[in-house]
């Protein structure tokens, strides 16, 4: 833990545990969103991820916390971030000779477990002049800590489209930002059950999958899933191993921690076949106005994975309807089938800074080819419902791409 008094007014403190920050200070900066809660960070800290080192930056004005930035350092594999198939192919060829090519130590803001949220936050009641002082301190401290941890660049994770302008203002002109895979959200309306607002082709897609599911499978919900985390981890790893982009590598302890720390706000949605074999599991967090399916695990077989996946998306929406939520926040992966199931998408950006000459050149000149904006299919809603669902999501802050 380091504490530095910068002037009569401002001071900074670096810590290695979220427990060094009071709950009231944390919630004053981040609010009470479940994905930005202290408990979510505790679940990460207690999971003993050997590959990461965690840090928390606090900035004080006259002893009062005015900004908090959670961070971590680790060796990042650019191959797992790139959205370009061509870059992936080239890197894989080079790694046949240079096995660690494009594996670089980074100093990262945000959470190790992907959250589709940035975590550079400050007290919004600050005056414009005080905000600029805090922004300058954040920028300077991130760069200094990057050097101290012997990291090659600062990596700003998971900036939603709605936040990109404000983050650019905080970090300044020498950070570069690129589009990642978009995040997905399905709106929930009390007046219309899923999937009746979708175009007939996509309603039929879901209904056919649901019919096939009902003939062969059944749903269960498990709220106390401590004795199921080993199986969930096995199925989660099945999905991870098939994924082209691996954003993190989680363990059974992390899933146990989520169950323990969010006992009343987490559950498993489980699909079993008629013989009782578990084929699909989704770990879901329940926030005040949304359901957040964090991770999915699948036992793959040759004939029915598509049915399981499409029906699972609809079952999540149904559960959100039952619990009177406004939307299901589906995250980044598999955006194409999610859009066909009724999802809208919002941009996710990554930010980078480096003081290393070669990396600075790569960020400026090569990263635009590594992070290519994805082609997003149009939404699949019937015309009479489009404005209604836009209004629901935009009232929650979403900046939608496929309107």
Q: What does it look like?
A:
This protein is an alpha+beta fold. The protein has two domains: 2-181 and 349-370, Aminopeptidase, CATH 3.40.630; 184-346 and 376-394, 3-Layer(aba) Sandwich (Aminopeptidase), CATH 3.40.630. Helix content is 36%, strand content 26%. Strands 1, 2, 3, 4, 5, 6, 7, 8 and 16 form a nine-stranded mixed beta sheet that branches. Strands 10-11-12-13-14-9-15 form a seven-stranded mixed beta sheet. β13 (290-298), α9 and β14 (327-331) form a beta-alpha-beta unit.
Topology record:
Layout: E1 2-5, E2 10-15, H1 23-30, H2 38-45, E3 53-61, E4 64-77, H3 85-94, E5 103-109, E6 121-122, H4 128-148, E7 153-160, H5 164-171, E8 176-179, E9 183-187, H6 200-216, E10 217-222, H7 229-242, H8 252-261, E11 266-273, E12 278-286, E13 290-298, H9 305-322, E14 327-331, H10 335-340, E15 344-346, E16 348-353, H11 357-365, H12 367-370, H13 383-394
Parallel strand pairs: 5-7, 13-14
Antiparallel strand pairs: 1-2, 2-3, 3-4, 4-5, 4-6, 7-16, 8-16, 9-14, 9-15, 10-11, 11-12, 12-13
Helix pairs in contact: 2-8, 6-9, 7-8
């Amino acid at each position: 833990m380091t504490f530095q008094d910068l002037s009569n007014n401002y001071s900074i403190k670096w810590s290695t545990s979220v427990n060094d920050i009071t709950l009231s200070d944390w919630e004053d900066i981040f609010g009470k969103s479940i994905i930005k809660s202290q408990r979510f960070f505790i679940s990460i800290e207690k999971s003993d991820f050997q590959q990461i080192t965690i840090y928390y930056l606090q900035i004080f004005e006259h002893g009062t916390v005015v900004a908090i930035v959670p961070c971590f350092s680790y060796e990042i594999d650019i191959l797992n971030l790139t959205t370009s198939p061509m870059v992936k192919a080239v890197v894989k060829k080079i790694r046949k000779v240079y096995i660690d090519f494009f594996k670089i130590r980074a100093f990262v803001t945000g959470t190790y477990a992907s959250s589709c949220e940035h975590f550079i936050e400050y007290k919004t009641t600050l005056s414009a002049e005080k905000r600029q002082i805090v922004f300058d301190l954040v920028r300077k401290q991130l760069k200094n800590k990057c050097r101290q941890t012997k990291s090659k660049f600062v990596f700003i994770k998971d900036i939603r489209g709605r936040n990109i302008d404000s983050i650019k203002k905080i970090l300044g002109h020498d950070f570069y930002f690129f589009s990642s895979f978009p995040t997905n959200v399905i709106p929930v309306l009390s007046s219309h059950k899923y999937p009746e607002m979708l175009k007939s082709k996509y309603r039929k897609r879901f209904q056919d999958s649901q019919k096939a599911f009902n003939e062969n499978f059944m749903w269960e919900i498990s709220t106390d899933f401590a004795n199921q985390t080993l199986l969930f981890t096995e199925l989660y790893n099945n999905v991870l191993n098939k994924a082209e982009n691996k954003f993190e590598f989680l363990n059974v302890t992390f899933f146990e921690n989520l169950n323990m720390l969010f006992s009343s706000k987490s559950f498993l949605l489980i699909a079993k076949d008629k013989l009782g074999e578990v084929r699909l599991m989704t770990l879901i967090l329940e926030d005040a106005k949304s359901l957040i399916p964090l991770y999915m695990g699948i036992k793959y077989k040759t004939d029915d994975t598509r049915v399981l996946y499409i029906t699972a998306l609809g079952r999540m929406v149904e559960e959100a309807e039952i619990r009177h939520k406004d939307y299901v926040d589906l995250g980044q992966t598999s955006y194409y089938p999610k859009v066909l199931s009724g999802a809208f998408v919002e941009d996710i950006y990554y930010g980078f800074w480096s003081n290393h000459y070669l990396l600075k050149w790569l960020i400026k000149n090569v990263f635009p080819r590594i992070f290519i904006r994805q082609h997003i299919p149009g939404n699949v809603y019937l015309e009479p419902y489009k404005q209604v669902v836009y209004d629901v999501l935009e009232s929650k802050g979403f900046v939608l791409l496929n309107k």
